[in-house]
Amino acid sequence: MIERIGPYRLEEEIGRGGMGIVYRGFDAAIGRTVAVKIIRPQQFSTAEEDAQLKLRFAREAAAAGKLSHPNIVVIYQLGEENGIQYMAMEFIAGLSLEQFLARGGPMETETALSILRQIADALDFAHAEGIVHRDVKPANILVRADGRVKITDFGVARILSQTLTQAGITVGTPSYMAPEQILAARVDGKADQFSLAVIAYQMLSGRKPFDAGTGPAVIYQIMNAEPPSLNDVNSRLTPECAEAVHRALAKDPDRRYPNCATFVKTLTESVAVSPEPGIALNDFYTAQGPSLRTRRSPRKDRNIAYYAYGALGLIVLVVGIVFFLWRTRTVAPPAVQVPAKVEPAVPSPTPATQVNSELDGGGSERVLRSDQIRSGEKKAKKTQEQAPKTDEELRKEIDDLLSTKN
Ligand SMILES: Nc1ncnc2c1ncn2[C@@H]1O[C@H](COP(=O)(O)OP(=O)(O)O)[C@@H](O)[C@H]1O
Ligand SMILES: [Mg+2]
Predict the structure, then answer these.
(1) CATH of region 94-299
(2) Residues 309-359 pLDDT 10s
(3) 2, 40, 289, 354: which could join 20 in a potential S-S bond, CB 3.0 to 4.6 Å?
């Protein structure tokens, strides 16, 4: 595994896809955890094709980078080092919807609707900005434990997979692709709505609408076949609910909903109000235990140990200071009781506290190191045990203390 790319330290691999490998990374300059995607080099292209592809990719990433929405993964940087392209983005601690759905069976309706609503919001927002995702699929939908959903790979995933497909390599699954997208390069937001409806179908029934198995067979189904009615697959769902999903799955983009939010709103209104049994988000997160991405790395554990030692040290120091101050207060009186005629009176507070207060007033020198405090304490103790000092001696002692400061 590579240790570092650009300004990022790579800590752990968190996933692999058609585009490359995704790592959890760390930007030490600003103390931020990021997700770094190393873009797989395109071995089958000429230097010119490669340059063009990189340009297209950079253009898409720049467009997607402008999208600022709570349900869209933020892109921080697109960089290149030694000919390797990488993309740094917001790190989402959670699971992808793909991992979630791998469990099989329908999801709890409320959870499914909440996820769909958030994706629809993000998609409509992007469409209004003129950006089509083109690869809406469960692997690109990240779900945090608190239920917040974030879509990733806006506009970029399909570019690379298309080039690979042209080179004769099969990438991923066409299961979520709209019919017009299979035929034409240019698509609009309606293609994303179709993909969203495939996801809705799968979440509510536990089955994909087009599931022939091999890529070409799935493509044939998407182009020609009507999927089984959703309320036949899950008899708990109403016919209205099935109708809503089937409309968004229309082969003709013009027959779908005007936008994604209208689809999800219609779906929500047609779902039976009684709570549906199904897999809930919480069940999943607790059953899974800590996921790959939420699991702490050994390095993080080590950091926690350092913090713990640090905190312990601080507590000991504070207790020490409090004890010292308490001691100097309670022990001070006997020193003052020494008869004035034998020796000049020792000013109270004791030298150490004087040093402290002097430093306190000293602006930039407010902090006393623990060793200074300890030496101050020792000297203070000595002063109280022995005979009181003259002004001269005290001044010298204070000078000594101050000179050990640095
Ligand atoms: N920003 C991110 N934060 C956390 N995990 C991510 C992030 N982006 C991607 N991942 C994880 O890495 C995996 C691989 O991502 P990717 O290369 O986009 O491939 P694909 O989307 O085809 O699965 C994803 O399925 C997801 O689990
Ligand atoms: Mg992805």
Answers:
(1) 1.10.510.10
(2) 667 767 767 666 767 677 766 544 443 333 333 333 444 433 333 333 333
(3) 40
Which token pair is 221?
Answer: 């189904």
The predicted structure's pLDDT at residue 284 = 61
**How far from 15 is each of 35, 213, 333, 356, CA to CA, in Å?**
10, 23, 69, 55
For 207-251, the DSSP string reads: S-SS--SSHHHHHHHHHHPPPPPHHHHSTTS-HHHHHHHHHHT-S
> 379 and 328 in contact (C-beta within 8 Å)?
no
Name the CATH topology of 1-91.
Phosphorylase Kinase; domain 1 (3.30.200)
CB distance 19 to ligand 1 below 6 Å: yes
Q: Which residues pair with 150 in a beta bridge?
A: 142
Q: Fill in the DSSP letter of residue 382.
A: H
Q: Where in the chain is the domain with CATH 3.30.200.20?
A: 1-91
| Ordered DSSP codes for 22-33 | EEEEEETTTTEE
Tokens of 54: 């990189």
What residues have a C-beta under 5 A from ligand 2, the ion?
Answer: 17, 140, 153
Ligand 1 atom closest to Cα of 96? 27
Sheet of 141-144: strand order equals: 94-96, 141-144, 149-151
CATH 1.10.510.10 in the chain, residue ranges? 94-299
Helix and strand totals (H; E) in the chain = 15, 9
Q: Percent of the chain, pLDDT > 70?
A: 64
Q: Hey, which residues does 144 pair with through a beta bridge?
A: 94
For residue 234, give Cα distances in angstroms to 48, 111, 117, 403.
Answer: 51, 16, 21, 82
Render pLDDT for 267-292 as a digit per residue (tens, 0 to 9).
Answer: 999 986 544 556 666 666 655 443 33
- CA-to-CA distance for 251 and 243, rounded, in angstroms? 14
The active-site residue, picked from 27, 121, 124, 135, is 135
Residue 321: closest CA among 376, 366, 384 = 376
Q: What is the distance between the alpha carbons of residues 174 and 135, in angstroms, rounded to a whole number? A: 9
